[in-house]
Amino acid sequence: MATLAARAAKRVLIVDDDAAIVRVLQDALGLFRHEHPYTVETAADGAEGLAALERGQFDLVLLDMYMPRMTGLELLTEIRRRGLQTPVLMLTGNEDNKSAATAIKSGVFAYVPKPFDLQQLEMLVSLAAASRSAGAAA
């Protein structure tokens, strides 16, 4: 029975306005050799991401910081305002220390600068997904 639970897919929401980044993240999640597969849903901006979060629960959110309509920080604030404890990895191409500090204060699991190292990303995804499992079990 534990084997079935370990193999249950983890739901990941990727919110990024750059289609190439979304493809890289989707491909990477498919290659990671974790104890469970990942099912992925995508959103092109924060507003679409919020709509996806309203439709269902996710085990992890990979969130770009700078997007049109609703930024990653705005979406992160809304996620926490709604009481969702979903781990969030904040991805950004800008080296803005103030925004990084704001993201950390807002409860991101990790702040990941672009271009990201896929080995580092794999480790962070694994840790974040495990933290969600531990939190759900508690």
What is the CATH fold-level name? Rossmann fold
Tell me the Rg in angstroms.
Answer: 14 Å
Spans of at least 5 consecutive residues whose pLDDT stays below 50 are: 1-6, 134-138
Q: How many strands in all?
A: 5
Specify the biggest β-sheet: 5 strands, parallel
Calculate the mean pLDDT score and round it: 86
Count up the domains: 1
Strand content: 15-25%
Q: What share of residues is helical? A: 40-55%
Characterize the overall form: globular
Look at the structure and name the CATH superfamily: Response regulator
Total helices: the number is: 6
Structural class: alpha/beta
- Give the SSE order as H and E letters: HEHEHEHEHEH
The first-level CATH class name: Alpha Beta
CATH architecture: 3-Layer(aba) Sandwich
As laid out across the biggest beta sheet, the strand order is 2-1-3-4-5
Roughly how many Å apart are the termini? 19 Å
In short:
With 138 residues, the protein is α/β, with parallel strands linked by helices. The protein is built from 6 helices and 5 strands.
